[in-house]
């Protein structure tokens, strides 16, 4: 495809996306087709000779778009949002078009340097502690997801806990990782990948009211492990748990980690974006104790997946844990020690130029634009929660400090599960669920840039009337 | 950014990329600016209020493009190629625009089903064994990179080698991984991440002529470990090593793995694409013995990073190794067992709709288009190698079965390193190096779709004249 063919086809694809966005609100949020519908409609292989882009766009309309869960739909309230935006899509398009590999500084200098600066910009935007800026021994990097951030934090923590032996000898002791009962499943997954096993994860109790980690229970767990000869390696605290957006008490947890010399990783995958608003930075208290921290611009900061922003206070353990230097990657810039090679900050070797989409988003919206985005969703969540609170049939299941509201029917689990099924079957909204203190709980997560007050009010009307 | 603003800005960005491609051949392949040039030119943070896309495009021209290593440049012969193409960029643009998350079948049904079908298409295109198709107990999935493929293969292998205990108890024995001295650095990295340590990796000798793994040395290493009470868990064989594209003897290695019950992973990251041509499938002999296999369409099959295609013969160990099911991800489709949830086939939870770019590439080029692409590069490599062979000053350092030619100056390492520096300083070409049997060796890897015979001939003229 030569540049002129690309220009023509590219305009057509841009138009297809613009039309998709313009009509998104009229589509059902989810597909009702059974498993296998798409696969059954596809041929057994590609044709011998090529087909035009127009044939692909026709099949996008006929086959693909009707069988999606539309995450950007104004009625999408499921999971956590994975919102994107026009500027993000365009920044990522430039990345695809350049097709450079940022594994080493030398393999694409601007890719590395723009990423370092964007992570510094984000650190400033969120008011993160100075220690995470690239000007000292720390700095930031883009990971694909908070799962991978937790994994690399775990590996750096193991290396540190072993006194530097781990990378040679591996897991030769009973290292332990700690998180609360509300911590994300990726914490257990990271511990398993790192060779600690599920047994290596200590699940710490939470305060039953706030659902935040109980620091006394953490201290007790660490002491018990030390007494048994185990090695406490990492605590993962959460700002904004996936189930209900609970906020762990990082100041107290940080003090315990400091006392026992345990790595503290703070996972703010969803709620980190809230810190762009000064009035929501209370949620990030105590972060100066953290060895590492991450949040996902791809969740609630208008940047398309994949874009997890991950910082370390000191990159030495991370790089020591992950670096392997074969001859074919050696180069003068790396040998000089004057540059950062981000391949040593992550699991894969290769890396896309993902800083571009952040650059596009941060510049196109500006600081106030991003704050307005977060504030509008928090206000919509407040509004929805007020409706729930005012209706005797409903119970608010947890605090709602950000843009997620958790609620259930007073009539019990069966009624709540039935309600979820009923409202999702309309195709007008999509909600998911969790369990809070064992009870089936609906989650309404506001995050699509297209979601307005009218959509949230419609969702409430639909839910209230379906509740019977 | 509303759909109409996106349409206008999107056309401008497409035009910027088309113009970039049209002028690529006139740019220096690499930047000569020192570290810090880009960072120093950027402001301390985003503006309070947004800026237009035109400002971003202007800064792409002024700041970013001049400080890149241009991987798509016709004179880029470094590392392995990471070639992309118009159809790939457009498929990825659709993925960005849809902004769906394929972590579960239910979270975006078409994302999962198109991926399954595309991996079946690719398996057919490469003539892979039936056991890797989704119709049986195996199947394929897209990973970000071959590094991650090796990691998840290692985890599945550990789970199997432990008799299913690993995911509970972790690394509680001395598990061992095997690869050759020419195996990729990501194999040691995966073993380290998995908690085996560098000591857990057995580096097996190669035949000094072919640089392929010596099966007798592998057998000896496995026997020694068994005698010491260690647990052989995984062998990683390579089709097309990074240093010189050597091909390990997979039939013999597979027989040894079968005899000792060791997981066989075959890494064909670069050379897998060659198997689209029937005349190059000799390189894939013995693959019916493999438990897992991967190659990177993002290296030599016109698909932009990230797109590693990874297959397992039986997905049960992989899923058992990686699955964690929190309440908030439970859904009727997953509970039914009728669908694949790819989150359990990879490290991260979230996932982009990466099958779209494959679909666009496979359909736009067609089978014959892809074969012509690979064949033209193999022919160009043959042509370049013939020039090297015919010149007494040069030595071909290794066989060149695909599109990489390794060569050095007979005058010695210092002369060879000097030659590399000299030709790269011209900005007309970019080559990287390796060491073969300890000797400094230049690598000329052909992969850019823009590279024609004229570019390869120019590269030779430049090299030959710089050799003095």
From TrEMBL, chains A, B:
Signal peptide (from-to): none
Cofactors: pyridoxal 5'-phosphate
Listed GO CC annotations: cytoplasm
Entry keyword annotation includes Lyase: yes
Repeat listed as a keyword: no
Gene Ontology terms describing biological process: amino acid metabolic process; carboxylic acid metabolic process
Gene Ontology MF annotations: aromatic-L-amino-acid decarboxylase activity; pyridoxal phosphate binding
Modified residues (N6-(pyridoxal phosphate)lysine): 299
Pfam families: Pyridoxal_deC
Keywords attached to this entry: Decarboxylase, Lyase, Pyridoxal phosphate
Stated family: Belongs to the group II decarboxylase family.
Protein name: Aromatic-L-amino-acid decarboxylase
